[in-house]
Every structure is written in C-alpha cells, then in structure tokens.
Amino acid sequence: MTYYVEQAVRDLGVKIVFAEVEGFDNQIDSPAWDGRRSERLAKLVDRWTGKDLHEDPVLEGFHILHDHAHIRRKHNVPAPVTLIKLLVKRGDAPYINKVVDIYNTVSMETCLALGAHDLDHVEGDVTLRITDGSERYVPLGESQPIPVAAGEYSYCDDSNEVLCRLEVRQVNKTATTPKTTRAFGRCTAPGRRDHALCGRKRSRGHPTNQVAPSHQHSERTEAMTSADYAAQNREQLIEYFHGGEKGLGNTSLLGVEVEHLVLADDGSPISYEPVDGRIGVREVLAQLEKDYPQTTYNERSDLLGLCAARDQHCPLRAGARRGACVPALQVSR
Fold first, then answer.
1. Where would a tag sit more exposed on the chain, N or C end, judged by fewer CB atoms within 10 A?
2. Which has the closest alpha carbon to 110: 67, 58, 146?
3. What is the chain's percent helix, strand, coil content, to nearest 5?
C-alpha cells in the first residue's frame, strides 16, 4: 500500500507519519500491559486534572491548525483533547480493544493524534487530502453516511471514502476489532512553528520571525507595582512588534501571538480570555484596535487583524507606544 499527502495539506502545516503493522494478536490477554496501563493512566489523571488544555502548545496547535483551515473549533475537537477530557472526568479511559487502548494512552501522553485502521478493509491506497464534498463518510457510531464538507483535510482511500476526518473522528469501515491482525497507523501533529504559539512555553524561544519577549519569571519581584507591569507590558509589545507590522495573511494568529506576552500585576501571563476576574488578551487587542480604522473578526468575535488602510499591513507598534493598551494592563484580581 502507498500513502500520499496532498500538497495543499502540507501547506497547512499538517505533519503525518504512517506505519504498517502485521501479524499481531488483538485478542490475547496481556497482564503486563494491564499493569502498565493502570499506572500510566493514573499519572495522566494527575497530570491533566485542573489544567487548561489550551495552554499545551501541541493541543492548542491543533486548534490553531483548524483556524488556518477555516474549520470551526466548536464542533471539531481534536481526538487527544477529547480523550484527556474524558479521562479527567471519569478517572479512567474507555477500553475498546488492545490496539486502540495502546494508541489512546500514547496519544494522551504525547498530545499527538494517533489512530489505526484495519488494512483488510482499506480499498487501494490512502491519501491525506482536502475534501471536495463528494466523499462517503460513515463515522464511528453511525449506520448511514453523513455529508462531508468541502475544504477539510481527511484521510481517504481510493474508493473516495473518508477513513478519518481531520484528526477528530474515524469511521466504521476500517475500525480495528479484536479480529484485526494487520493495520496501518497514523500519527498527526500540527507541525508549523506558528501552530505552537500558545501556552507558557512560547517564552522559551522565538516561535515567529518577531523578537521574542525578553522577560523571565525569575526577573520579576514582589516590589513591582501595577504601573511597573503596565510599563513593562508596553515595552514588551513594542519590542515584540519592533518590525512595526503584522501582515493580514497571518491574521488568525494575532490573538495567540500576544497571549502570555502581557503580564498581570503579579507577574503571571494573561490568557486570551478573562480568568479569575482578570482582563484577557482579547481586551488588550481591543485597546489597540482603537488606533486602526479597519478590523477583521471571526465568528467568535476574536480580533484577527488590524489595518490602517485596505491591503496594507498593521503597524501595532504605534498603538503600543502611545499607551493605548495601558488601562487594560493595570490588572488586579
């Protein structure tokens, strides 16, 4: 079997590895795995309980990948996010069969999207491509085909049937069962550098061509006041946008690029949405917006772009330098 990846999918930044495994027994009991499973799931419960999954750069990277592909976040939750939320809620992971159990566990540990498909039910070769809406799609749990939207990256075989839509949902046709002895596996990641602009880890490097923030948590002291942090935020914004422009071709990333660059008055990063009575980056951008006559939003009312005039880039530095965002940055609980 041959595996193909359409260039349009590569251009979105989807990273994929395929592998074939044959001659395994998916029915045999494995006390060794059962013991390791319990131990690993317990560690995962501890790891994820109480955590904001949007702060993980890989998990949020899938959401940002969907933004690039113009796919709504609300009804298209990446599989590892769904698995982790279910694990935290129930304290355990659902058991389907050995193969599914192993890759689900690894998925929650790595935050990557893993899956396996029974090779005996794949027709022809497999292509990760952009759908055109003509494909047949019968997701797990359904008995009848469901319409497929055009413009989504999906794994399809040569019969024009979807085997997995995005990294969200697999299908009945190639689902592994206890009788499965050969399968192809896939591991999907949001591979573009700008798909990992979320969470606290962004301060450790240079995720874009912009200058990375120079502040570190160790440099903050109890003596700093809200005014000090407001001044520092203004300086960090000027430094970050030192090039003076953000192209509209990158508009879907505007909010997440600023997130966690701005600091609250206790030195902690500010999330995109308001949390615990604090303002969020959304409000910071709203302050900057006042300096620009043209704005772009998505359906969730997220500010995607600021522009001085049609077809021009967005000089954010000027607004930050004039202190347009200072009132929103004097944060208190």
1. C
2. 58
3. 35, 20, 45
Q: What is the residue extent of each domain of the chain? A: 3-193, 199-329
Please report the pLDDT score of residue 331 as a whole number: 36
Question: Pairing state of beta strands 14-22 and 182-190?
Answer: antiparallel
Handedness of CA 242, 248, 250, 251 (dihedral sign): positive
303: three-class secondary structure by DSSP: strand
14 pLDDT higher than 70: yes
Q: In this structure, which amino acid lies at residue 234?
A: R
- Measured between alpha carbons, how far apart are the two ends of the chain, in Å? 58
* CA quadruple 297, 74, 17, 137: dihedral sign: negative
pTM: 0.59
Q: How far lies 314's CA from each of 241, 242, 249, 280, 308, in Å?
A: 10, 12, 11, 21, 6
Topology at the third CATH level for domain 3-193:
Phenylalanyl-tRNA Synthetase; Chain B, domain 3 (3.50.40)
**Contact, 165 vs 172, CB < 8 A?**
no
pLDDT single digits (tens) 234-277: 776 666 665 555 544 444 456 656 665 677 766 666 766 676 66
